[in-house]
Amino acid sequence: MDPNETSEITNANSGQQIWKLIKDGLNIRKPVTVHSQARCWKNTLAQRKGRHTGVGKRKATSMLECPSLYLKGKGNVSKDKQILLEHIHKLKSCTQAE
């Protein structure tokens, strides 16, 4: 996208206007990501060595469950660990009740 033409791009609210922008060269389509057999084979060999097969790949990390709580734990929001744990248990019990 051309940064000088941002107003024209933001005003385009229909399919015809967007196709006109593409035809004029203001909006360029990204190239398709390469999905070659060589890349697949390279990844397969890495997996045979044990790469890309950890717990985070098979199960989501606990941070994904409550990102706000994770940030609060890192951001020194609560007074101590006990209060943070009580808050977590309270939230989990509320979500299970619903």
From TrEMBL:
InterPro entries referenced in this protein's UniProt entry, alphabetically: 60S_ribosomal_eL19_sf, Ribosomal_eL19, Ribosomal_eL19_dom, Ribosomal_eL19_dom1, Ribosomal_L19e
Record-given protein name: Large ribosomal subunit protein eL19
Alphabetic keyword roster: Citrullination, Ribonucleoprotein, Ribosomal protein
Domain of life, source organism: Eukaryota
Chain ranges of the Large ribosomal subunit protein eL19 domain: 1-92
Function: Component of the large ribosomal subunit. The ribosome is a large ribonucleoprotein complex responsible for the synthesis of proteins in the cell.
GO cellular component: cytosolic large ribosomal subunit
Organism: Microtus ochrogaster (Prairie vole)
Similarity annotation: Belongs to the eukaryotic ribosomal protein eL19 family.
Subunit note: Component of the large ribosomal subunit.
Gene Ontology molecular function: RNA binding; structural constituent of ribosome
GO BP annotation list: translation
Residues that span the membrane, as ranges: none
